[in-house]
């Protein structure tokens, strides 16, 4: 089985690469390289003390759940194409040809894909991992907004079919977490849940039996953009407490997978 993954270069992305390499005969990775010092080095988010404080908590949670993940390639079955973040849509199908001959395609954490590449990936029934529970939260930083909105039951990830619209593809299932010790750990553990669920369901082939369900956009709570994620919003978020101890109603979820440890 050949798998192609479009992803980024943080610890959690490397962890996912290692997981996929264990179940594939050949793994092809197009890895967009961005700063791993968010809040310190300006990139998609500005550099400031508040941003640094927030992303330090994010990175601490990431380290606790994923360790210091480096790409191990223990199976010696990995081919990786590192590119600069944002350069993906400059890559022609010809340039990527060796990475476009797989059986399964997955997108997690890449930049927004356009043009002939998105057409190709849609035709190949590509899976997309969206960090947020669609259709309720779409856009960027969705789990942050779900917590800020006091909707911890809508913190999770959505595995859906890739589409041209942002996070709008038909939903296969939701990946959630029962680890609720801390908001940052809770949020990051839903990333881990997405990884383990998709690996398990590819391995036992159950993912191919799930009927995708079209999203009901009338259920949308928030569509967030990067510009919405600013210092004032973060400061307000950090000053409030989210109750993670209450019993959650899971009836809003589709075929959910729960991570317990």
Can you walk through the features of this model?
The structure is a single chain. The protein is built from six helices and ten strands. It is α/β, with parallel strands linked by helices. The chain has one domain (2-259): Rossmann fold. An eight-stranded mixed sheet has the order 3-2-1-4-5-7-8-10. A two-stranded parallel sheet has the order 6-9. α2 (49-66) links the parallel β2 and β3. α1 runs parallel beside α5 (183-203) and α2 crosses α5. The two termini are 28 Å apart.
Mind sketching the topology for me?
Elements: E1 2-7, H1 11-21, E2 26-33, H2 49-66, E3 78-84, E4 104-107, H3 115-123, E5 127-130, E6 137-139, H4 142-148, E7 157-161, E8 171-177, H5 183-203, E9 222-224, H6 231-238, E10 257-259
Parallel strand pairs: 1-2, 1-4, 2-3, 4-5, 6-9, 8-10
Antiparallel strand pairs: 5-7, 7-8
Helix pairs in contact: 1-5, 2-5
